[in-house]
Specification:
Blueprint: H1 2-23, H2 29-51, H3 61-84, H4 87-94, H5 99-107, H6 114-130, H7 142-162, H8 169-196, H9 208-213, H10 215-237, H11 241-248, H12 251-263, H13 269-287
Length: 288
């Protein structure tokens, strides 16, 4: 059961990342985050009412609020990094967020094993190589790497927090709903501030019509992200967290394959090697 839900998490997050990255190439990233989360919140609100999830309200919901506050920052950073591309490099670096649960373990007295130390070294080498120079091909912008690492920390924090937000399935629906409401509040505030400072809420070409046309894709991104959070929480609650984390961290493979199949992306040798090392470091961190 743990393996099934964790692999489902990888598939859902991978496809959501790919869809979000594509959308932000034409629509402002904050708009993508806010609209996709609004759609997800509406659906979750209906589910909570239908299942009686309100009865599960309690102190654990503060974990969902915290996850909701961190999530928009992580998603915005990641979508901007994906828009800068290439996805095949950005997505594996984003998987380094699994290091956050390891850090939490250190704070409560756990000590890393040799595999975890190796994972740190391999992951750092992968980050350097993924942004390293080469004579041919488009370089990965330094800003994309920084944004991706910021997103990775946020994703890891969300994973740790949402796993603690509920102990039952109906409680999980409520926790995910509260998380989305917080996402909307934080993301909406950021969007408002951005517009007040001269930023755009709508695409320069096409305006609101582009957003309306993209609503099905925005709905998919929002709902896939919600479902991924849910399947990960279930996986972590019903089996070893290390197993759930390892299998859930494979989502960059889905994004990279989608980018290669749909966009025909071709990575430079050093970039592909760096992305692979980052993913390997992630797996070592989770299994150590």
């Amino acid at each position: 059961m743990t393996a099934l839900f964790a692999l489902a998490t990888s598939l859902l997050w991978g496809l959501a990342d790919f869809g979000g990255g594509l959308l932000t190439r034409r629509t402002p990233a904050l708009t993508v985050v806010v609209v996709s989360q609004c759609i997800a919140a509406v659906v979750l609100g209906i589910v909570v009412i239908a299942t009686g999830g309100w009865s599960e309200a309690g102190d654990r919901l503060w974990f969902a609020v915290a996850a909701g506050a961190v999530g928009p920052v992580a998603m915005l950073s990641f979508y901007k990094a994906l828009a800068l591309g290439p996805m095949g490099v950005v997505s594996p670096l984003g998987s380094l967020g699994v290091a956050v649960p390891v850090g939490v373990g250190l704070l409560v007295g756990e000590r890393p094993g040799l595999l975890q130390f190796a994972g740190v070294a391999v992951a750092v080498a992968g980050v350097v190589m993924a942004g390293g120079p080469q004579l041919r091909g488009a370089p990965v912008q330094r800003r994309a790497v920084v944004l991706t690492l910021l997103a990775a920390f946020g994703f890891g924090a969300v994973m740790a927090l949402i796993a603690e937000a509920s102990t039952t399935v109906t409680g999980l629906f409520l926790a995910l709903f509260v998380q989305r409401l917080t996402n909307i509040a934080v993301g909406g505030t950021a969007l408002y501030v951005s517009v007040r400072r001269g930023g755009r809420a709508l695409p320069e070409d096409g305006g609101a019509g582009v957003v309306r046309a993209a609503l099905p894709a925005l709905a998919f991104v929002g709902l896939a992200d919600v479902a991924a959070n849910g399947t990960y929480a279930i996986a972590a609650q019903h089996g070893p967290v290390t197993v759930a984390a390892v299998l859930a961290s494979l989502y960059p493979v889905v994004t990279a394959l989608a980018a290669r199949g749909v966009l025909g992306e071709r990575l430079r040798g050093v970039q592909a090697a760096g992305a692979s090392l980052a993913l390997l470091g992630t797996l070592l961190l989770a299994t150590g």
